[in-house]
UniProtKB/TrEMBL annotation:
Residues 31-218 form the Glycosyltransferase subfamily 4-like N-terminal domain. Its EC number is 2.4.1.132, 2.4.1.257. It catalyses: an alpha-D-Man-(1->3)-beta-D-Man-(1->4)-beta-D-GlcNAc-(1->4)-alpha-D-GlcNAc-diphospho-di-trans,poly-cis-dolichol + GDP-alpha-D-mannose = an alpha-D-Man-(1->3)-[alpha-D-Man-(1->6)]-beta-D-Man-(1->4)-beta-D-GlcNAc-(1->4)-alpha-D-GlcNAc-diphospho-di-trans,poly-cis-dolichol + GDP + H(+); a beta-D-Man-(1->4)-beta-D-GlcNAc-(1->4)-alpha-D-GlcNAc-diphospho-di-trans,poly-cis-dolichol + GDP-alpha-D-mannose = an alpha-D-Man-(1->3)-beta-D-Man-(1->4)-beta-D-GlcNAc-(1->4)-alpha-D-GlcNAc-diphospho-di-trans,poly-cis-dolichol + GDP + H(+). The chain crosses the membrane at residues 453-477. The keyword ATP-binding does not apply. It comes from Podospora bellae-mahoneyi. Residues 230-421 form the Glycosyl transferase family domain. Belongs to the glycosyltransferase group 1 family. Mannosylates Man(2)GlcNAc(2)-dolichol diphosphate and Man(1)GlcNAc(2)-dolichol diphosphate to form Man(3)GlcNAc(2)-dolichol diphosphate. This is Alpha-1,3/1,6-mannosyltransferase ALG2. It is found in: Endoplasmic reticulum membrane.
Amino acid sequence: MAKGTKDETRDGKVGEKKQKTIVFLHPDLGIGGAERLVVDAAVGLQKRGCKVVIFTSHCDPGHCFDEARDGTLDVRVRGNTVIPPSILGRFSILCAILRQVHLILSITLFTSELSKINPSGFFIDQLSACVPLLSLLRPQTPIFFYCHFPDLLLVQNRNSSLFKRLYRIPFDALEQWSMGFATSTAVNSNFTKSVVAKTWPGYPADQLKIVYPCINTSLPSSSSPDEETQPIKWGQSEKSIILSINRFERKKNIALAIQAFALLPAPARQKSKLVIAGGYDARVHENVSYHADLVSLCETLGLKSATVKTVVSALNSSIEDVDVLFLLSVPNALKEILLKSAKLLVYTPREEHFGIVPLEAMLRGVPVLAADSGGPLETVVEGRTGWLRAGEPELWREVMGRVVERMGEGELREMGEEGKKRVRENFAETEMARQLEGVFEEMEGADAKGAGALGLVLVVMAGITGAIGVGVGLWLVRTPAVKL
């Protein structure tokens, strides 16, 4: 007999409803905003009585969220034995699509793993390219696609070569076309919905649902409460921590925080420390190169910096006199200590489609200084839970200086309480899980939009295009004068 969960019927009686089995498909279950959303959504659905299985092409136990490695979630790595994540550091999107094809074929045609799970629905995010293939193979199973942001906009670069722009054309077209095969589609904010409407005028954006990302509002308990509640101290001094948490990617604009911090008067800098923590994967060239660029920027601006990778090193008193401290891929325990110790969180990306970090800070009573565009416009309330500013370093310096030198503890505490209230009322994990379960209930009985013969032909054509892309790409790699 299948497990069920209690549910209240319309006449007020409590009965049993059939347990849903939701299968998630995610490309790389590492550390980032998209991955945090996937993990929180999966945990939330589990708490509501759903069975959840996550399939991914990569999950490094040393570089993923705790729930993905401690047994909280059933995470299965498949489709990672044939196609590499990139070819000579390039063609990441092509490889990601082919790896997802391999994953889907591995659990549907090569084995009966998916049939044994017998999912009630699929949750797919980031890559929509294989939605038609999945709908062809499992036409009776509805597919929910979560669009974090149009991928073509995430990789746009005006300085890209002609060859790279031509290389991206089939993938950009495939993104819009393939999303249409999802039974239901959602975006993470009104901002993203407006961007989708502008990017793909022919796409029925009015049918997009908005499901805000969430955070766990039940703060983790500490095995050492005294350590958790005490601010971080380096040596004998207690400095105000200005905290930045983001992946080491250029689009995150972390340099803005460093430039603004360098503009602070010397007395304010002596009272504070800029701590830059975030996702860092040594396999990703951009993470490595951008971190090196930020270290170089500190040197240019006359700021002393240090980079550490362990909790012990991060709390070492020998880095007391460092102006800027880089923490690479911090574990949750240290992240909690940093958030509880921070006086201000600075969130630098412009036109970020949502942004989970400001919510994490607000939940812990930390005011947020964020860019006045994108998702933060829907999460941060000017003057009540933080500040929204344009991208000029001087504007950010003014807020940093105000928090460090001129705002009293009472004023900061009041702003912190406003932030906690806003997160708990609008962005709790229970709310997102409730919305997602409602979406899957709406899709019950609705078949996936089967690709049919035409879909199969187009999928094969996409594969051929990909193969041609690999061939052309390898030729270009061998040609020193042409770079993608």
